[in-house]
Structure to design on (100 residues):
């Protein structure tokens, strides 16, 4: 079992990795999802599913949210009040919508 300290240490080892859309290679490039994917590979193993291509703003003109759906399939939801170091936070930026 991976500890919170190991998760935080692994995440900090990505500091200095430049932004690169849809990448997930430590020291070479990543975006926010790429960081999570890279940490998963480092700490857990093979990624649980292939990620679809996505726009820089994750917007989708058809109204679906495939990346949020993937997060829901592979992560355990927790209440915002109990978030601790090592947890993943997913922020949704959508006008007029407030959800947890």
């Amino acid at each position: 079992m991976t500890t919170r300290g190991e998760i935080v240490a692994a995440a900090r080892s990505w500091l200095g990795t430049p932004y690169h859309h849809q990448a997930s290679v430590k020291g070479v490039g990543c975006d926010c999802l790429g960081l999570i994917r890279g940490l998963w590979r480092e700490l857990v193993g093979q990624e649980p599913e292939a990620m679809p291509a996505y726009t820089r703003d994750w917007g989708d003109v058809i109204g679906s949210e495939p990346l949020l759906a993937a997060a829901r399939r592979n992560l355990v939801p927790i209440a915002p009040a109990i978030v601790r170091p090592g947890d993943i936070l997913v922020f949704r930026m959508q006008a007029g919508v407030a959800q947890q």
User: Anything to note?
Assistant: Strands lie at 24-25, 29-30. The longest strand covers residues 24-25. The first helix runs from residue 4 to 12. The helical segments are 4-12, 32-43, 66-74.
